[in-house]
Amino acid sequence: MEQTLQMMSLGLVLAPLLASVVAGFAGDWIGRRGAHSVTIFCVAISFCLSIYFVNHFVLAAAAPINFTVYHWLVIQSLQLNVGFLLDALSSMMAVVVCFVSLLVHIYSIGYMHDDPAYQRFFSYISLFTFMMLMLVFANNFMQLFFGWEGVGLVSYLLIGFYYQRDSATLGSFKAFMVNRIGDFGFLLGIAAVLASFSSLDYAAVFAKAASLQQQTVTIWYGHEWSLMTVICLLLFIGAMGKSAQVPLHVWLPESMEGPTPISALIHAATMVTAGIYMVSRLSPLYELSNTALNVIMIIGATGALFLGLLGIVQNDVKRVVAYSTLSQLGYMVCGLGASAYAVSMFHLITHACFKALLFLGAGSVIIAMHHDQDIRHMGGLRRYMPVTYWTVLIGSLALAGLPPFSGFFSKDLLIVAVSASGLPATGYATACLTLGVFVTALYTFRAFFLTFHTTPRMDETTRSHLHESPAVVWLPLVILAIPSALLGIVMVSPVLFASQTLFVNTIHVAAHHSAMAELATEYHGAFKLMLHAFVTVPFWLALAGILVAWLCYEKYPASPAWLIKRFNWVYRLLLAKYGFDQFNQTFVVGSTRTLGRFLYQVTDVSLIDGFVNGVAAVTGLVSSVVRRIQTGFIYHYTLAMLLGLAGFLIWLLWG
Amino acid sequence: MVSLANYLMLSAVLFGISVAGIVINRRNIVIILMCIELLLLAVNTNFVAFASFWDDIQGQIFVLFVLTVAAAEAAIGLAILVVIFRQHHSIAIDELSQLKG
Amino acid sequence: MLTSLPLLSSLIGTPCLGALLILLTCCNNTARAKTIAVSTMLVSLLLALLLSLGFDSSQVGMQFVESYDWIKPLNIRYSLGVDGLALVLIVLSNFTSFVVVLAGCNSIQAKVKSYMVSFLLMQSIMVGVFAATDAILYFIFWEMTLIPIYLAIGIWGSDGRLYASMKFFLYTFAGSAMMLIGLLFLGLQAQGFHIADFYQLPLSANAQTYLFLAFFLGFAVKIPMWPVHTWLPDAHTEAPAGGSVILAALMLKMGAYGFLRFSLPILPDASRALAGVMVTLSLIAVIYIGLVAIIQKDMKRLIAYSSISHMGFVTLGCFVIYLIDKQSGNVAGSYLALEGAIVQMISHGFSSGALFVAIGMLYDRMHTRNINDFGGVAYRMPVFAALFMLFAMTNAGLPGTSGFVGEFMVILGSYQASFWIAFAAAMTLLLAAAYTLWMYRNVFFGEIVHDQVASLLDVNLIETTCLVLLALAILVLGVYPKPMIDLLHGSVGDIVQHALTTKLIA
Q1: Contact A633 B22 (CB under 8 A)
Q2: Does the N-terminal or the C-terminal CB of chain B have fewer CB atoms within 10 Å?
Q3: Residue of A627, A628, A632 with shortest CB distance to B97
């Protein structure tokens, strides 16, 4: 049985790789049809297998399987392996990845229909699925890092998919670099793990973790830091890069240069949540450091509120959704800080559904608008695109967190969990998350109203061509709308609160981090939770957000202009995105280049090469003087020889 | 009886003359070649004188070697000289300073 | 059975024979010269494969030993042998030379015959360097490597070739003169020049320090380490593609090989005393050179700087073992760092070789190396762009490619010496990605603005073969490095044991 499961997991992971290779290398040969058929087929296989795994490990609660595929490197007692860890957490994550990936594959048939690089696109997204699955199923840090950088690579390739556009290549470059900053920390974290645990396998590390809790390290002379805090923070830097946390969030909005299906798959549903998955996976380590949890909470909360605010002033429909992703990732990270890993994972899953839905919906709108993404040019699309309209409405309501949609459960529980956490950052975090609800509802419905309601603002030719997108496009929307609406009700009890919670084997929560336990005592079923919502602040804030959006953009369209005039500095601050980009461009990029130029021109060319050429020049100078001795006349040489000989003789005889 | 010292004196004088010839002469390479021959002759004189003085045949054998080498050297030297003359139309030493640094 | 064959001598002899054959039989027939060259290289590649098949990785010490008297009064012998370290380098050099000769068939127009001859000779000399177990033999091969490369730069190079070839020659020659003195001193002490005998030689701390400095000059110039690196960018920039590949993929390895073969085991105490300095120089190479690479406008110069930066990892891995030993006494950490350094050598051979070959292909088409003269190449050359992306990624150290393995091992190892060493070393993650991908972006992406780019043709069959061979090597080593690393255990164990045992009498 175990053998079969191992083979199945291999098939699950390798099928997309196979598809990617086929579509990539034999793309011309198998044609467009062949490319999408083979990739969809293989990802569908993966999806079916992952469903089976969820059934086996989550519903049937079978024991986790941890096995080695092959030895990557063996040095004395140290073994670095490629191996899989099959358990509830990885199965759940895998099913999310495969589900969204499958739908995105199907959707892309429609979205990429006219693109000349059709096969390349399908090859990339299958490759992405493979990398992500490698990450998810990793049973050790080395393979985690492989998947981690692998998804970064594919993300880079896909953001720069339209490589003729400067903005796309710049965006992809930026995304890769910022991710690399994260990976830099992550790699150091892995090195720290190896140095302290002498192993990179999760099992070995977790088994030893508690015994090293009191250990300290000296990083800076004279300062002792807790080993666990150092490791956790270093690893978390990786999560900050991948999951776009402040201040490494700057790449995510730029990543919207990629094709929209990619934004849904990579930059909303799966890759950016790798950080959340990683921290949950490593919960036995994070539980040992309150400092790290505090930092995580603060960073998450800051992102949740302040990056959400930026969504209000964006006019590109995809960027609005991108900032909303940043804000939601902040929520999840904040939940991790409160030790509510299960709730964060829950929010990750629901968010994957409704955010993929919103992105794909945006994509549908973009197709209809002939690739114009500016919401100022839209309006009134409701009449032309009913399916998109209703599905996006469901997604928006889920994002805003209104019951009974899925987002309500996960977000509401997240806020409760964070407020129940006893860490010092609790107050700040709770305030940010609660205010964030209002902001979320506001920017979501601002974009929603401007797109689907209000008077049409597009030009005549565009309007005359407006129509609902083809079935391959709207079908995934409908399929995603179902879990966006219902997943919360269905999953909330079994995932979080059943007597044996589904993640119990895989997520470790220390006894003194009581947020989850408190949640469980207050929880009395999904419907009670919904009823209870009407007396909580977040619910009314969400409604208020929708109301404000309606007032400002539907009812009194002149009001935003007035507000911009009135609060001009706020508006400019938000437009400048708090100056992160400006700062990076000026100080980070600028100073690096200046330093490089200085080192090259001053140190390398002038000093070192100056010295080298100087040696040559001095040699030349000396020889130009000395060579005058060499007259070329034989009798001079003979005389010199004789004098020398005479000198020697004299020295021999009388010396 | 001519003493060993006389032979040595003779060879020293020969040697001195030939060296002076090499150093002072500035006009003709042929003279240099002749001087070199003279140098070797001076050495040969020494060899023969010592051979007879010590009653050792090796010195005389060596003289034969030196004579052979001198002949070969003169042949090569003259050949070079001919080549130089063809190229420069002159064998004046003053004009041959191509090795000047 | 295999071990009884004189495989090493055949590996040295075969290319020489091929070269002779070309000289004798192909007066003006370039096609025949190419055929002979490629088939010779194929034969020696097969011989190298035989060598690695016959190699017994469980055994410590030299294998395939051949030893004959050469200069008896001085006890100098013609003796050859391989351990794991030499073996992987010999296979690497055969592989790379094969690719170079193959690529040369396509790109070289002038003096094809001489080109093939000089690269065939280069190949046999390289094998000689790595296989020699006699110090004088080693030194002779070492110096002989200069000639073919000097000629390659001087004859087939681009505009500034005279300055570059002279600088290259004098720089490296000056370094190796010191090394010769060191070798002679050791030879007189040991009354013979067998390298293994040097390991047993008791040396005082002072003698070790002077010897270390003498060797350091020879090896550091070759690697090259900061601050004696400035010959490399010039040499690379002006050299023909094949010359750059040999330089980067093989000649730089000679320096690191020297550290591993001579400095560490023969001079353990001096190495330990100077480990801090060496590590600092290595880290300067990684960061400083990385920063310098970012602003380069010439593609080959950029890759040349990137080579220096990557070789910094090799020296870091070699010398950080002393700091690991001091900090934690963890021998596994030392193994990790040292084997990482060797893997990095091999992987850098593949990645820089691939990049130089690829840039050579662009140069053949465009006759410029300036990054700004390109843009939009991916439109016209999709296959080439895809392969180049792989090479760029291995240069940036992406997991799954060979570039990752060595860096990963060295960083993991050096963390056990100090957090800050690992921190500085890991900067390469950022710098390498920055300069490689920035170059890639400017060359391959964007709209086509230059007419020349618009008329580019994608790689032909020979070129594709070269690139695919290199790509396969990069991927195989990246995905499954264990077989290669297993080969190294024996010799690395030997080196670590000698390197960490003091020679001083307490």
Answers
A1: no
A2: N
A3: A632
Element (H, E) at A216: strand A216-218
* Model confidence at A243: pLDDT above 60: yes
Check CB contact of A69 with chain C, cutoff 8 Å. Answer: no
Identify the burial level of A470 via C-beta atoms within 10 angstroms of its C-beta, where 0-12 means exposed, 13-18 middle and 19 or more buried.
middle
Would you say the C-alpha torsion C286, C291, C292, C295 has a positive or negative sign? Answer: positive
Dump pLDDT digits (tens) for C369-412.
888 888 888 888 888 888 999 999 999 989 989 989 999 999 99
Q: Which two structure tokens, joined as six digits, stand for A338?
A: 């409160």
Residue A481 · residue A378 · CB < 8 Å: no
Per-residue model confidence (pLDDT) at position C506: 58
Q: What does the DSSP 8-state code read for residue C367?
A: S
CB contact under 8 A, C288 and A181: no
Q: Looking at residue B101, what is its pLDDT?
A: 66
Handedness of CA C397, C400, C406, C409 (dihedral sign): positive
Q: Do the chains B and C touch each other, judged by at least 3 C-beta pairs below 8 angstroms?
A: no
Q: Do A635 and B96 touch (CB under 8 A)?
A: no
pTM above threshold 0.90? no
Those residues of chain C that have pLDDT short of 70 are 1-3, 26-27, 505-506
For A379: left if phi > 0, alpha if psi spans -120 to 50, otherwise beta; the answer is left
Task: Give C175's contacts in chain A (Cβ within 8 Å).
Answer: none
Look up residue C145 and give its amino acid.
T
Over residues A344-365, the pLDDT tens digits come to 888 998 999 899 999 889 888 8
Cβ of A198 under 8 Å from any chain C Cβ?
yes
**CA nearest neighbour of A341 among A535, A504, A472:** A504
Among all chains, which residue has been given the structure tokens 């393995």? C405
Closest Cα in chain A, distance from residue B78 (Å): 16
Q: DSSP 3-state assignment of A312?
A: coil
Asked which of A30-39, A282-291, A542-551, A560-569 is least confident by mean pLDDT, the reply is A560-569
DSSP secondary-structure letter at A272? G
Q: ipTM score of the complex?
A: 0.91
Between CA C220 and CA C227, with CA C221 as vertex, the angle to 5 degrees is 80
A603, C295 in Cβ contact below 8 A? no
3-state helix, strand, coil in chain A (%, to 5): 75, 5, 20
C480-505 exposure pattern, b = at least 16 Cβ within 10 A, e = fewer: ebbebbbbbbbbbbbbbebbbeebee
Interface of B with A (CB under 8 A): 19, 22-26, 32, 93-94, 96-101
Looking up tokens 């969504």, which residue turns up? A311
- Report d(CA B5, CA A557) in Å as an integer: 132
The pLDDT score that the predictor gives to residue B14 is 93
> What CA dihedral angle connects C409, C415, C417 and C419, to 10 degrees?
150
Minimum Cα–Cα distance from B21: chain A residue: A635
> Is A255 in contact with A263 (CB distance < 8 Å)?
yes
- Chain A from 222 to 281: CB within 8 A of any C CB: none
What are A209's two structure tokens?
């973790």
The pLDDT-based confidence of A50 (bands split at 50, 70, 90) is very high
